[in-house]
Write a structure and sequence with these properties.
The protein is 29% helix and 15% strand. It is globular and about 65 Å long. The strands form two sheets. A seven-stranded mixed sheet has the order 2-1-3-4-5-13-14. Strands 8-7-6-9-10-11-12 form a seven-stranded parallel sheet. The two termini are 39 Å apart. The chain is of the alpha/beta class. It binds NADPH dihydro-nicotinamide-adenine-dinucleotide phosphate. The site of NADPH dihydro-nicotinamide-adenine-dinucleotide phosphate (NDP) has 34 residues, from helix 5, helix 8 and helix 14. This is Formate dehydrogenase. It is an enzyme of class 1 (oxidoreductase). Its main location: cytoplasm.
Length: 397
């Protein structure tokens, strides 16, 4: 019997279950690269239900208990008296979502003597200290591709929201106003602008594909250049360094995972090289940018806007400066937890658990670390060189 500890975000303030806006969600069988969506032996939820909050339990209770396992679900995750930290030393499996991350720091991993598997229900395992996980031979897995398109859609929405000045214009209406000049004086067309995507992985490529019909100039950077035919299809030009991208873009869309090489990529120095009036959209990880450099650039007017759903820490404290900085379109971390995405990553979590308990190999596409080293997609996306540890799971802002 195993103890599975799931750290999930709190239920809706008006209670669970919520009233749903739609009766169903479209059925998706394959991802754009042809790989299949999660395929567990069964699911005990209706796709479209709220699964990521405490009462949703990722739809796992029936399956786990019928196999004799124990499921502990909590949203209480901060500090030594939290349910998470109290239950962790006896947990075999920890599940958490990046939206409400259970930060598995080296200290906590050292105390988690039984821990064998850490699942990210979603994508992005930077909340786990991957070096410590490797030292303790803990398998880390995530549900690759489950919400990549969800995030790409949100990225495109936020690019348009910033450039068109949508949110301030909407607020004018809800406040009873009608000042067209106020609404229009920060509103531009995206057409003709240069948009640069940092990291053309699953999300970044989907952003490029979705922006192409807007008749923008598309550029991208990452460590490996895409094949020529893919670049042609995307209509995107490779630039070898983020510095080359920063100085020419009107809009930068950040789609890279957080690791030592991407930590604070957009700092005062890099932002200073951007055009006055550039925009940044970041749904990837808060620490890809220097928090205070963003605030400074928005206040000075050097940046025209910043939008994103990723913060550090999460949940963001009430006095987090990004809540009140000017010209921002911040939202809570939610791009990747649409009800559509939840159905996929809950099924993917179940698939990973089934494989783990039945001693079957976990899909390589889901593996981040295994057997003391980075594995599967993790070996491509992350770096854990000694002395270059990802600061993601640590306290450093
Ligand atoms: P992928 O693994 O498909 O893509 C990651 C890309 O990052 C790769 O193309 C890689 O290319 C590039 N990359 C890695 N290191 C660097 C670097 N140093 N500089 C530039 N590019 C780099 O992941 P996804 O697209 O699916 O997801 C990306 C990230 O998005 C996740 O790690 C997560 O942090 C975030 N995310 C956010 C969500 C949300 O709800 N807001 C939900 C899901 C994901 P190369 O190796 O050539 O550099």
């Amino acid at each position: 019997m195993a103890k599975v500890l799931a750290v999930l975000y709190p239920d809706p303030v008006n209670g669970y279950p919520p009233k749903y806006a739609r009766d169903s969600i479209p059925k998706i069988t394959h991802y754009p690269d042809g790989s299949t969506v999660p395929d567990p032996e069964g699911i005990d939820f209706t796709p479209g239900e709220l699964l990521g909050s405490v009462s949703g339990e990722l739809g796992l209770r029936k399956y786990l208990e019928s196999h004799g396992h124990q499921l502990v679900v909590t949203s209480d995750k901060e500090g030594p008296n939290s349910v998470f930290e109290k239950e962790l030393p006896t947990a075999d499996v920890v599940i958490s979502q990046p939206f409400w991350p259970a930060y598995l720091t080296a200290d906590l991993i050292a105390k988690a003597k039984n821990l064998k598997l850490a699942i990210t229900a979603g994508i992005g395992s930077d909340h786990v200290d991957l070096n410590a996980a490797n030292e303790h031979n803990i398998t880390v897995a995530e549900v690759t591709y489950s919400n990549s398109i969800s995030v790409a859609e949100s990225d495109v929405m936020q690019v348009l929201a910033l450039v068109r000045n949508f949110i301030p214009a909407h607020e004018i209406v809800t406040e009873g106003g009608w000042n067209i000049a106020d609404a229009a004086s920060r509103s531009y067309d995206l057409e003709g602008m240069t948009v640069g995507v940092v990291a053309a992985g699953r999300i970044g490529r989907a952003v490029l594909e979705r922006l192409k019909p807007f008749d923008v100039k598309l550029i991208y950077t990452q460590r490996h250049q895409l094949p020529e035919d893919v670049e042609k299809q995307l209509g995107a030009t490779f630039v070898p360094d983020v510095k080359d991208l920063a100085k020419v873009v009107d809009v930068a869309v950040l789609c890279a995972p957080l690791h030592a090489q991407t930590y604070h990529m957009f700092d005062d120095d890099l932002i200073a090289t951007m055009k006055r009036g550039a925009y940044i959209v970041n749904d990837s990880r808060g620490k890809l940018v220097d928090r205070d450099a963003i605030v400074r650039a928005l206040k000075s007017g050097h940046l025209a806007g910043y939008s994103g759903d990723v913060w550090y820490p999460q949940p963001a404290p009430a006095d987090h400066p990004w809540r009140t900085m000017p010209n921002q379109a911040m939202i809570p971390h939610m791009s990747g937890t649409s009800l559509s995405a939840q159905a996929r990553y809950a099924a993917g979590t179940r698939e990973i658990l089934e494989d783990f308990f039945e001693n079957k190999p976990i899909r390589p596409a889901y593996l981040i670390a295994k057997g003391g080293q980075l594995a599967g997609v993790g070996a491509k996306s992350y770096t854990v060189k000694k002395g270059e540890e990802t600061p993601g799971s640590g306290e450093k802002e």
